[in-house]
Design brief:
Length: 265
């Protein structure tokens, strides 16, 4: 079955992986556009008029939920089928399981993607047989988007729970609670856990907006540290504060703007 799709994800690696997996399970599917954020997702969907859109649930500019709302309102007729690509599971899946909106958990696995593809093909076939979508199905989609946004938070976001990082040719999902600290340079951000080090392209300023501020403290313009990983704070011979990490030799400098975090130490 031939169909046309748009892929939206702020991580190029995830877009590439999804495109490759889709080529395996649905070779007739034509990817007509890719988007790096929610704003581009809406624009490129409006321009390309695809049959379905794969939306990362968390993107800059607009979240996947916000983009889905606008996409559903683009045309008075049948909107494209929506598939959310998400690292979330338990609290979000209930909304997806209703059937009007589907989902894929990151990283996209062939077997689960095949289930989604079969559902989408069936839905598109029904749409073709019955003509434009009835208003009832559009109302159901809006209700599900409302519920999903409530589950994710008032603005459609929730604290980041997973970090997607490239390890060789593999995409690895690192639970945020396992991260000890993040340190950025000009191009990459180092993600350090007790077991491994990984690199991502997401800058500290974006991570700050996505992480739980009660768990991750910014101690420098280029450094975020998991508060639970802090073993103690010392001063060097120049009087600078240094954060010690549990079980590791790392000493992370605290810039003057953030010394108030450790008053009395």
């Amino acid at each position: 079955m031939h169909a046309r799709a748009v892929i939206a994800d702020d991580e190029a690696l995830m877009r590439e992986q999804l495109r490759a997996r889709l080529a395996e399970v649905w070779p007739e599917l034509e990817i007509v556009a890719e988007a790096r954020n929610g704003i581009e997702a809406v624009e490129r969907t409006a321009a390309a008029n695809p049959d379905l859109v794969f939306l990362d649930i968390r993107m800059p500019g607009k979240t996947g939920v916000q983009a889905a709302r606008e996409i559903a309102a683009l045309e008075p007729g049948a909107p494209p089928a929506i598939v959310f690509v998400t690292a979330y599971d338990q609290y979000a899946i209930e909304a997806f399981e209703q059937g009007a909106i589907d989902y894929i958990l990151k990283p996209a696995e062939r077997e689960r993607l095949q289930v989604t593809v079969d559902r989408i093909k069936a839905r598109l076939s029904q749409r073709g047989a019955r003509g434009p979508a009835e208003s009832g199905s559009q109302d159901l989609m809006r209700q599900l988007l409302d519920r999903l946004q409530q589950q994710l938070g008032g603005d459609g976001t929730a604290p980041l729970k997973w970090i997607q990082a490239a390890v060789g040719q593999q995409i690895q999902m690192i639970p945020v609670e396992e991260v000890l600290f993040f340190v950025s340079d000009e191009k990459y951000t180092r993600v350090q856990t007790a077991q491994q080090e990984a690199l991502i392209r997401k800058p500290i300023k974006e991570l700050i907006a996505e992480l739980d501020p009660k768990q991750f403290w910014q101690i420098h313009r280029s450094t975020l540290v998991n508060a639970r990983a802090i073993a103690g704070v010392s001063r060097d011979f120049r009087g600078r504060q240094l954060v010690h990490i549990k079980g590791r030799p790392d000493k992370l400098e605290v810039s003057r703007s953030y010394t108030h975090l450790f008053k009395g130490m």
